[in-house]
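Protocol step 4 of 5: obtain the predicted structure for the target chain.
Materials: sequence only (see below). No template structures provided, no constraints applied. The aim of this step is simply to have a reference model before the mutagenesis design in step 5. Sequence pasted as it appears in the construct record:
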Amino acid sequence: MKAVAITQRVSVVPAYGERRDCLDQAWTRFLAACGLLPVLLPNIAEIALALCARANLAGLVLTGGNDLAALGGDAPERDAVENALLDWAARRGLPVLAVCRGMQVIQQRFAIPLRRVEGHVAQRQVIQIDGQPREVNSYHHFAAFDSRPPLEVWAVADDGVVKAIRHSAQPLTGIMWHPERFAPFSPADLALFRQVFGVE
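Step 4 output (structure tokens):
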């Protein structure tokens, strides 16, 4: 199995005075179904980068959870870690697949305006992917309604919200749905991850 680095959300637990890194176990099951082995990264930049330097990684997955700090989120350390990881992946030409918040991190890096949206927290939502209707899930409160080069749009919702992007020259892909939350997993999502990370 190919190994991929994967980021984690920050869970703030005031009762214990703790800031915990956590990841839904569904991600491990989903990546295993794709033929991928997850390497979980902490939200401490120097440690995350040191782990990446020592692992033989096929790429990077940015997961959902935590609004961006610029949008009122409470995990600025995660923003710093994920931007450092994107720089690291870009220097090595490694593919990145960014989910929900992860896609917003990429959009923010390319100065794509994000704003609060309504109606995008639903277990089922029909969107257009490469011009074809498909049912996905949706769990976000912020989104973009347009894009610009080098980011290309390949999925949109009926209200114009951008649901997926690709970089025109770099191996950057973003989606606004959560593939790990489907049961069973979507064959299209499994195929996407295998394609991005070169799983035979």
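Step 4 remarks: The chain has one domain: 2-197. Helices lie at 25-33, 45-54, 76-92, 101-109, 187-197.
Proceed to step 5.
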